[in-house]
Amino acid sequence: MNPSVNFENSREVALSLEKAWQFLSGERAMFDVLVEMPACPTFADFSVFMPLAVDAGARTAGVGVLIQREDATIVASHMFGIPKDDIQEADLRDACAEVCNVFSGCVAPNIGHTSSICIGLPTLASSADFDEISKGSVITLTYRCDQQIKRLFVLVYGVFLAPNNGANHGHP
């Protein structure tokens, strides 16, 4: 069994993710909890991770959000009020960091009492960082949103090990 994960409220968390996505993107979408653990989802154009210190740092959990470029563009356009054709790379990174930030708050009830969780800073991961995170961390729950364009994944880690290359230093 995975460390300290509350599976019982996963449907409520999925509903919270749906509301958050609508707020962030202006679009309605449905999130499903994947009951049977699939192989780890693959690297996305914007793979953003956030460490969560649990119980005064006794354990580090985490959240990963895997967003493809098309969905990142939708979020950035809605969030910043900029036409899609005028979106810059920095806008995409900032928008995806905010998605990870908001989604981390949504999934915190899966990890522990929200009062015992200290949310870190979102970090955009490279493909190599993603591979290192995938090898050293333990996914306890996966939420999937089948968007019209691409799939969006929210990964909940019961154990999260940040990459050793110093990439985990804050905002992307």
Q: How widely separated are the two ends?
A: 33 Å
**What is the CATH architecture descriptor?**
3-Layer(aba) Sandwich
Output the radius of gyration. 15 Å
Strand content: 25-35%
Largest sheet: 7 strands, antiparallel
Tell me the domain tally. Answer: 1
Please state the structural category: alpha+beta
CATH topology group: Chemotaxis protein chec
- How helix-rich are the residues, as a percent range? 25-40%
Tell me the overall shape: globular
Blueprint (SSEs and pairs):
Elements: H1 10-25, E1 31-33, E2 46-54, E3 59-67, H2 69-80, H3 89-111, E4 117-119, E5 123-125, H4 127-136, E6 138-146, E7 151-159
Antiparallel strand pairs: 1-6, 2-3, 2-4, 2-5, 3-7, 6-7
Helix pairs in contact: 1-3, 2-3
Brief summary of the model shown:
With 172 residues, this protein is α+β, with helices and mostly antiparallel strands. It contains four helices and seven strands.
